[in-house]
TrEMBL record:
The active site is at H523, H567. Belongs to the GMC oxidoreductase family. This is pyranose dehydrogenase (acceptor). It comes from the Eukaryota. It comes from Psilocybe cyanescens. Its main location: secreted. PROSITE patterns: GMC_OXRED_2.
Length: 588
């Protein structure tokens, strides 16, 4: 059942209480309720705004993720930032961004960030996961042991335009019977696709064609895969919490309810944290209620939400908490530390390809084309709105071993099959733009509390470009993009760099471009990292139980000690699928 308000909840005790109905929480809710004797409560803070406005300006009622058109239509996903479906977090002023404050989007809706993300489906490299296994001492986190969970999660489907996909992916590396639909682009980009592939072929080396970037070896140029199918977004909510699962009698989904703290459970031995404080209200004066798990509480509030709740619960650095009058319950200084995100920026090159090669060339500026594209999507889920944008390829690259930066820094990537940078290639007849991203950053930031009010946003400092390594990699990403568009394939159509990089002719000017324009890739991890059982750092053990306590487990992006060289949803799904098996094994 789904409850819109706390007052509707039938019980105050459940076997499991999952806090956060996002990407990982939705997976866990589904998997744990496969066992009919487990009573499970899933608590989600969003969407709170109960009325919204659709494409035609009509006001409609929102319950959960249903009917949120910007979340359903892939091409509308960019409209979700700074809306009622966003937590609307911002960073602290970033020294590495010339003092700029930037937004950090997080989904405030059932399905969490999987309901608002860019749908790019990338897993990272095998060595990313092998490094998880190595730092935790738990072989279960290695690539080969996680492959079954990758396949359990994924349901590969044909692209919605039914184009011939031979040579565009390798079926050996995909799951066909899982939950999250993945597919190749459902409308191709004739203006640039053939030239991208030709350039990859001409240049080889860094840019060599890679038939499937999700094989565990992502490097090179490959076709973009996304978490969509049939022309619509596939999120944790639309799949793992589809109506037939919401109807399970042992699953209780509570929306519009914020968890403020996890409390010591009365009458229990030692530090047992199975009691959850929650409220339907909006501010510090709102009345709170308590619910208790008989078996476990699982925190799945993500890289920002999870440490936020832990710190308010008195779990974190004792000295920091004392300074804001929060009594220490468990002195775990690693909570909120190791904040790791990937910054991105947008270099672009002007092209001179005749417009008539692409009927949608002026989609971003022409209101008639915009109305036509939505009509097409509405009629039969086709047209340019079936993709986030006109990007069909990604290039993943590494700095060469001889790069001078390695004289000063150890390699932050997980191994030689891992990328340092990524360029998502999006194009129209008049411009090819690249989303340049530092995917194996060396900078580490932190999340702290401003005060003891759980309704206030935390201080989020990702420390973008504070490591010189990341700025160096940023410049090399732009230079790699320049090399890419200098291939013979572009010779007759390339005009030159455009926008902010047009005049960035020196390294110092490239640095300015990066610092003045970079944004978040929205892939933060690491604030409740897992570590070896006996490590003197970390927040959870390799089985994801909170260190030095019982009753509380964490399963979401926050537990990753390093960011994989990838967009992070695939790794979150993998973590949640494995966490479900760990929990079932502990209690069955
Ligand atoms: C704009 C954007 C674009 C992205 N693009 C991509 C992409 O293209 N490809 C990709 O792979 N990854 C992408 N990501 C990253 C990816 O979506 C996330 O890494 C992943 O979804 C995180 O999963 P999670 O379970 O850790 O957190 P979330 O999915 O964010 O779930 C956390 C949930 O907890 C809830 N919550 C938080 N605090 C509380 C509280 N106190 N009480 C109750 N509930 C609470 C939240 O509302 C949310 O529903 C993107 C993310 C964003 C935001």
């Amino acid at each position: 059942s789904v409850y819109q308000q706390l007052s509707g909840l039938p019980n105050v005790t459940f076997d499991f209480i999952i806090v956060g109905g996002g990407t990982s929480g939705s997976v866990l809710a589904n998997r744990l309720t496969e066992i009919s004797s487990f009573e499970v409560l899933l608590i989600e803070a969003g969407p709170r705004s109960i009325f919204s406005v659709n494409f035609y300006g009509l006001i409609y009622f929102i319950a959960s993720n249903d009917g949120v058109i910007n979340s359903i239509v892939p091409g509308f996903a960019f409209n979700l930032a700074n809306t009622p479906f966003d937590w609307n977090f911002t960073t602290t002023p970033q020294a590495g961004l010339n003092g700029r404050v930037i937004g950090l989007q997080r989904g405030f809706i059932l399905g969490g960030s999987s309901s608002v993300n860019g749908m790019v489906y990338t897993r990272g490299s095998s060595s990313d996961f092998d490094r998880f296994a190595q730092v935790t001492g738990e072989p279960g986190w290695s690539w080969s042991r996680l492959l079954p969970y990758i396949y359990k999660n994924e349901k590969w489907v044909a692209p919605v335009d039914n184009h011939n996909t031979a040579g565009q992916f390798d079926p050996r590396f995909h799951g066909f019977n899982g939950f999250i639909k993945t597919s190749l682009p459902g409308i191709l980009n004739p203006a640039v696709d053939s030239r991208v592939l030709q350039a990859a072929n001409e240049l080889n080396g860094d840019f060599e064609f890679n038939v499937d970037m999700n094989s565990g070896s992502p490097l090179g140029t490959g076709w973009l895969q996304s978490t969509s199918g049939g022309g619509t977004r596939s999120s944790a909510a639309t799949s793992y919490l589809a109506p037939q699962f919401q109807a399970r009698p042992n699953l209780h989904i509570l929306l519009n309810t914020r968890v403020t703290r996890i409390l010591k459970t009365k009458g229990s031995n030692g530090l047992t944290l199975r009691t959850v404080e929650l409220t339907s209200g909006f501010d510090i004066t709102s009345p709170r209620a308590l619910v208790t798990a008989k078996k476990e509480v699982i925190l799945s509030c993500g890289t920002v939400g999870t440490p936020h709740i832990l710190l308010h619960s008195g779990i974190g650095d004792k000295k920091d908490l004392a300074a804001i009058n929060i009594p220490s319950v468990l002195d775990l200084p690693s909570v909120g530390k190791n904040f790791t995100d990937q910054p991105l920026f947008f270099p672009a090159f002007e092209l001179n390809i005749p417009n008539d090669i692409d009927p949608w060339a002026n989609l971003s500026t022409d209101p008639t084309l915009q109305a036509d594209s939505f009509a097409l999507w509405n009629a039969n889920r086709t047209g340019p709105l079936v993709n986030l944008n006109r990007a069909d390829h990604i290039v993943w690259g590494r700095l060469p071993n001889s790069s001078p930066i390695f004289q000063k820094f150890d390699d932050p990537s997980s191994g030689t099959n891992s990328a340092h940078w990524e360029i998502i290639l999006a194009g129209s007849p008049s411009v090819i733009s690249g989303v340049g991203t530092i995917v194996s950053p060396n900078s580490r930031g932190f999340l702290k509390l401003k005060n003891n009010n759980p309704f206030d946003s935390p201080l989020i400092n990702p420390a973008y470009f504070e490591s010189e390594f990341d700025l160096f990699t940023g410049r090399e990403t732009i230079k790699a993009f320049r090399r890419f568009v200098s291939a013979p394939a572009w010779k007759d159509v390339l005009i030159g760099p455009t926008g902010d990089i047009a005049n960035a002719t020196t390294d110092a000017l490239l640095d300015d471009f990066i610092r003045n324009t970079a944004l978040s890739a929205e892939h933060p991890v690491g604030t409740a990292s897992m570590s070896k059982r006996d490590a003197n750092w970390g927040v959870v053990n390799p089985d994801l139980l909170l260190k030095r306590a019982s009753g509380l487990r964490i399963a979401d992006a926050s537990i990753m000690p390093f960011v994989p060289c990838a967009h992070t949803q695939a790794s979150v799904y993998i973590i949640a699928e494995r966490a479900a098996d760990i929990i079932k094994a502990a209690w069955q």
